[in-house]
Amino acid sequence: MFSVISNHIFQDGNKRTGLQAALLFLKMNGYRLKNTLVKIEAENQLLPTKGENANEILFQFTMELASGQINLDQCREWFKVNVEAI
After folding, report:
1. Around Cβ 14, how many Cβ atoms within 10 Å?
2. Domain that holds residue 54
3. Using CA atoms, how far apart are residues 80 and 48, in angstroms rounded to an integer?
4. Average pLDDT of every residue of the chain
5. Structural domain tally of the chain?
6. Contacts of residue 66, Cβ cutoff 8 Å, sequence gap at least 6
7. Structure confidence by residue, pLDDT tens digits, 38-72
8. Can you give the pLDDT at residue 51?
9. What is the spatial distance between Cα 45 and Cα 23, in angstroms, rounded to a whole number?
């Protein structure tokens, strides 16, 4: 996800493609995103959400990744805490 989105390998659709590639990769390897996601806040802290649904957090994470606000290590950490075995 990080490489597809950050490197803008396509003229259009990098965020959609990167997200779908990540979700497919997880599924093919027996994992999925948790129902309750944690988001990255200031100071690179991962915080539990308060009243936000998973889709909003996933959208925010993808947009922050695309804008360069999230580096590779933060992306890895986000997936580490937001993924569970199927």
Report:
1. 19
2. 2-85
3. 14
4. 87
5. 1
6. 5, 6, 14, 15
7. 876 655 555 544 556 888 889 989 999 999 989 99
8. 52
9. 23
